[in-house]
Structures are given as C-alpha cells and as structure tokens.
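Appendix B: a complete holo record

For completeness, this appendix reproduces one full record from the ligand-bound portion of the collection. The bound molecule is flavin-adenine dinucleotide. The inputs are the chain sequence and the ligand SMILES; the output is the full three-dimensional arrangement of the complex, encoded as structure tokens. No fields have been trimmed.
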Amino acid sequence: MKYESIGAGDTFASQVESQNSSIPTVIVIGGGISGLAAARILHDASFKVVLLESRDRLGGRIHTDYSFGYPVDLGASWLHGVCNENPLAPLIRGLGLKLYRTSGDNSVLYDHDLESYTLFDKEGHKVPQQMVIEVGDTFKRILVETEKVRDEHTDDMSVLQAIWIVLDKHPELRQEGLANEVLQWYICRMEAWFAADADMISLKSWDQEQVLSGGHGLMVQGYDPIIKTLAKDIDIRLNHRVTKISNGPNKVMVTVEDGTGFVADAAIITVPLGILKANLIHFEPKLPQWKVDAISDLGFGCENKIALQFDSVFWPDLELLGIVAPTSYACGYFLNLHKATGHPVLVYMAAGRFAYDLEKLSDESAAKFVMLQLKKMFPNAKEPVQYLVTRWGTDPNSLGCYSYDLVGKPEDSYERLRTPLGNLFFGGEAVSMEDHQGSVHGAYSAGIMAAENCQRHLLERLGYFDNLHLVPSRGAIHDATFPLQISRM
Ligand SMILES: Cc1cc2nc3c(=O)[nH]c(=O)nc-3n(C[C@H](O)[C@H](O)[C@H](O)COP(=O)(O)OP(=O)(O)OC[C@H]3O[C@@H](n4cnc5c(N)ncnc54)[C@H](O)[C@@H]3O)c2cc1C
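The structure of the chain with flavin-adenine dinucleotide bound, as generated:
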C-alpha cells in the first residue's frame, strides 16, 4: 500500500521513506458532496483513496433526516437549474429521483414563483395578492435601478445601501405601511438566497453568478440517495477530524484529532469555508498570504430550518406561507413540504443574523417561537407531533451554510481559493462559487475539478501515464439516459 494510517509521534520524513507502491494515493478531507465526488473520480481512476470525515455521517451540508419516517432535507433541498446541463442531472436520472419544480427561470423570489405563496401580516390577515404582485414588480424595478448605482460608483457597496440610494432618488418607488412590509419580505427572500443580510452582500457581485436554466426543483426523496451512490466502495473514515496538514515536496501528511497521521502523494481539501476561516486546521508550511486573503474575502452565511411534523394538514395548499413585518429581519416563511411530498410537514426557514440568533434558543424555545408565528396565520394550528431544529452556524463541522460575495471582494478570490499548493488541492462549495453560488451542483463540480487537477498533477509528477488504466473521469453514472422526473401540482 502506498499510504497507511500511522500512529502519533512518527515523523513525516520517516513515514515518507517507508511508503513504496506503484499506485498514486490521495487523501480527501471532508465527506460532503464535493469530497465524495472527488473521491469517486479518483477511485474510479484506480487511485488509492481514503476519505477523512469529522462527523459520524456523510453528506455534510446535505443532511436528509429520516426521523419523521420519511426523508426531510435539513441542509440543501433544492436543485438549482433543473436542466440537462446540470452536472447532477445524470446522477438524478440514473437513480430515478423525482423533482418538484417550485419555480421557472428568473423569478423575483429566486426559487419560487409569485403564484405559489400567500403572505400574512402580523395580525394574521392575508395580504391582498394584488399588493404582493405590485410590490414584487416594484422590487424588480428597484433592483434594476441598483445597476445604475453600481455603474455610477467605482467603490463597491452593499445591496441594501444601493436600495436606499435608489429610494432616495425615486420617491415613487418607496412603499408605506403594509406595502413596505411586503417589500421587506422580498428583501428577506433575497437574504435567504445569499444566507446573509442585505447590508453584507456586494452590489458589484450579487447578480453576477451564472445561473443554470430550468428553474428550481425540490428533491422529493431528499438528496441522500446521491450521497450513498457516490460513497459506494470508497474507503471512508468517519469521526476523523483533520487538525493538521503538512504539505511536503513529494507527500502530504494529514493528522487527525487523536494524533493519527495519514500519508499520501496528494490531498484534496473540501471542508467548508467556515472551517478555513476559523483556522481550525493547522497548515505546515503556513498558507501563503494570497490564500489567506482569498479565504477572508468571501462571506460565509447562515440559514437554519425548523421542520415541524403534524398529524394532518390544516394549512392551504400553497408552496410558501410568509409573514410580513416592518424589517426583513422580522419577516419569515414556511415551506409547505406537503405540496411536494404529500407529508404533513412545514419547514420554517431563517437566514442571516436572524438564523444566528435562532441558534441561541433551545430546540424547544425555537419550536415555540415558530409555532407562535404559525398561530398568527392559523389561530387553530395544531401542535406538532415532532420537530427538528438545525444549527448550521455553530456546528463545528460547518460554521455556516454557504458562501456569498462580501462587499469589496476582489474579482479573483475564487480563483485564488481553488489554486493548488503543490500537492494540496482545494475543492468544496466556495471554490466554484462564481458559477454556482454556493450550490450542491457547484460543490459537486468543484470536487470533480479538484480531483481531475490532482489526477493530472500526480500522473505527470509520478510518471504514471504509461502503466495506469484510467476510467473516463465522469464515470458510467454519467451515461444514464432516463428523463428527469419533474412534477408540479
Ligand atoms: C440549510 C442549508 C440549505 C441549503 N440549501 C441549498 C439548496 O436548496 N440547494 C443547493 O444547491 N444548495 C443548498 N445549500 C448549499 C449546499 O448544501 C452546499 O453548497 C453543499 O452541500 C456543500 O458541499 P461541500 O461538500 O462543499 O461541503 P460540505 O457538505 O460542508 O462537506 C464538507 C465536509 O467536511 C467535513 N469537515 C469539516 N471539518 C472537517 C475536518 N476538520 N476534518 C474532516 N472533515 C471535516 C464536514 O463534516 C462535511 O461533511 C444549503 C446549505 C445549507 C446549510
């Protein structure tokens, strides 16, 4: 074997000398979709791979929970870009997974269409749908005007600041009373897309991502089958939290929490940006300043979900039930999973500072808070049978949800983030963000890209071109030709 698990106290050099084999070896750090995609590619290409994952489960920010008796995604749940060009389409087709499309292209609500929801004020009165549509149109006009603000200013600013400038210049776009609360709700939806408050999001970059066509679809059976498929036959070590990475000229040594070391020809790191920002992994030699800067130039937002299971449905047959308020912070909404899955489940979703604040509450208090919101809309709402509460922002394995462009971010941050350092390659959601804005398919592509770069680098460095049989790196699962199964009720 080219690499092996080694005990604490062994020196890097002595371990390197003891390794002799003809098969290139790679350590993949992180068992989310990015790490699994990387491991899959290299495993299928006959590399020797070991994947180190800190949690006691795979999937990372994909987490399909089954405690309600059926799948509920507590992390990612939408496929952004329901089209054949989506890199996940072949896997989804091959597994016969169903998608429930919640919006077409270019919705002002990102992954929902205007007709798919109802808003309520804080007294529980329905907001007239005509007002919701009109304010939605105004919000679109405000956003168009912010493009002019961008053109007029050389320095970047937050989206919120630009909105204020627009409202100052165009008093006719200002909203009062209930209409302003609806406008705040649109801002709240925008903040959910970036998992960050509007005063943190870069005006220069917020709309620059390349979104795939086909709109957005919920994974009806959850994302878990994809994780299971990618993980098949990979040497995976759960409960292996990496604390140190020593990047030598010919080998990489990765040390985990209990002091055990793993040596290989190369390593691919796919831990979330929040982990890199918090310096939870010690790099030897230290990361160069340009890499450290790239890590701090990007934002890492937070979104939390509180899933409520009821014994029966008492709410209307709509996809989203929203509550408007005088600030976007105080607005909220429930995703009606019954619409897509047939199960009596509502998922409350909170993003940005509010999501962090929710994490300070106990599970019970968080569920009580959410039930108060629900009872404003439906005074006779039943109590939930069960509930699940996420804490992505303080979870030591994620420290956030997904990346976004901070105000003033230099243009080449992503490029610097993904640039390899010798035998160390960088995958993970944040690395591919300029194309895929913190998405599952972005993370998947980033893992594939890192694996392909690593593969090329090692084959060149080790001179293996002649004696390795390489399976085409996208693998047989990419050849499936079943149509995507999409429904809309
Ligand atoms: C609440 C929420 C909702 C989302 N909604 C959507 C959505 O609807 N659609 C969408 O496309 N995307 C969504 N996303 C984003 C999507 O989930 C991520 O972009 C994607 O799953 C990231 O995959 P990844 O492999 O890069 O990172 P991760 O899934 O975070 O994988 C990294 C892995 O590294 C492990 N790790 C951390 N530290 C260490 C360490 N020191 N040593 C070893 N392992 C370590 C972690 O445990 C984790 O398993 C959402 C995310 C969240 C949290």
